[in-house]
Amino acid sequence: MVWLGAAAQGRDNNLNLIRMLAATAVLVSHAWPMTFGPGVLEPMERLAGHSLGRLSVYVFFAISGFLIAASFTRSSSQGRFVLARVLRLMPGLFVSLVLVGLVLGPLVTRLPVADYLSQPGPWTSILRNLTLVFPQYTLPGVFADNPYPSVQGSIWTLVHEVICYGLVFVAGLFGALRPGWPMLVLLGLYGAGWAMTGLTDLPVHPKIMLLQTLSLPYVAGMAAWVWRDRIPLSFWGIVVLALAWLAVRQTAVAYPALIGLLFYATFWLAYVPQGWLRGYNRLGDFSYGMYIYAFPIQGLVVWLFGPTTPAAHIALAFPLTLLLAILSWHLVEQPALGMMKRGRAAKPSPPQFVRASFGDTPWIKRP
């Protein structure tokens, strides 16, 4: 029997590959609205009630909940944890926003370039999208004749990711990232809140509902980190959870059952299959670049070639998006993350453990 805790030691896993496949699936899912317009259902949505892109986002959040909880417990201080999150998210996003707003935009806008650059839109798109709270999805005269005229379409999830970072931070401060009553209290409060809004007809703001939807796989990932030593990974577990979801898919608990299935299948795929799949780790982590560049490149494909079939759209958009993702990893994201390692080498941490002020949570020094 393979146990998650034992399998999750070290970096020899399939998580990079799974995240890359999930990011690619988002591109595939967007091919339908990009070519046919908003509101068009893609095949998976008809089949499972959730689009392929939305299912992929759930996978991202489950993995992130697990890894970010692990990152908190392994960080030498709260400050280093926060800095690591900023360096992972912001440099790649900033460069992509500059390239889209100030390079792609002037090339494809229907406005004269001087008029385009004199408007506030290209500049506010960078500032607003970096804040994540009030994203700007369009640029002046860019893709205005496309069936889906937005330039950005995926970054809406990032603010929810950051909020979930905050949840991990608070949970860690109060000692809830290790087995014990603090995590049980956190899960109890979360479950009660989820049941009140997710399983009843109480009026809730759509943004709160969206956060609740995305936070469920994230919290499941956090709980998996806490009790990783008690979670067996078995293919038959996937079968049982799939049957359970099919049995309740027309009920109010269909979504939690689906998250349970996706969460368990994701971690089985991440840690059980070995062999040649593990070789992907030598290439790099291109998933974030794939995610943030796919939508503007897909808009560019429609602008260049007009509406095509979804298959042709995917074939045209994927290579350029992959190239930008590879460049983003090697030129922006990896060097930014390297700043953490250089800082640690320049100023070694003391050998003893340092404990947080709340919950007596150990901060474990990285080797």
Question: Could you explain the architecture of this structure?
Answer:
The protein is mostly helical and 367 residues long. 68% of the residues lie in helices and 2% in strands. Strands 1-2 form a two-stranded antiparallel sheet. A two-stranded antiparallel ribbon has the order 3-4. Helix 13 (287-305) runs antiparallel to helix 14. The protein is globular. It starts with a strand and ends with a strand. The model is unreliable at 349-367 (pLDDT under 50).
Architecture blueprint of SSEs:
Elements: E1 2-3, H1 4-7, H2 15-36, H3 43-48, H4 52-74, H5 78-108, H6 113-118, H7 121-131, H8 156-173, H9 181-198, H10 206-226, E2 232-233, H11 235-248, H12 254-271, H13 287-305, H14 310-346, E3 354-355, E4 362-363
Antiparallel strand pairs: 1-2, 3-4
Helix pairs in contact: 2-4, 2-13, 2-14, 4-8, 4-10, 4-12, 5-7, 5-13, 5-14, 8-10, 9-10, 10-12, 11-12, 13-14
Question: Which features would summarize this protein structure in a list?
Answer:
two-stranded antiparallel sheet; 367 residues
| DSSP, total strands | 4
Q: Span between N and C termini? A: 28 Å
Average residue-wise pLDDT: 88
Q: What about the largest sheet?
A: 2 strands, antiparallel
- Biggest sheet, spatial arrangement of strands: 1-2
Which structural class is indicated by helix and strand composition?
A: mainly alpha
Radius of gyration: 21 Å
Beta-strand fraction estimate: under 5%
Order of helices and strands: EHHHHHHHHHHEHHHHEE
Uncertain runs are: 349-367
Q: What is the share of helical residues?
A: 55-70%
Q: What is the helix tally?
A: 14
Shape: globular
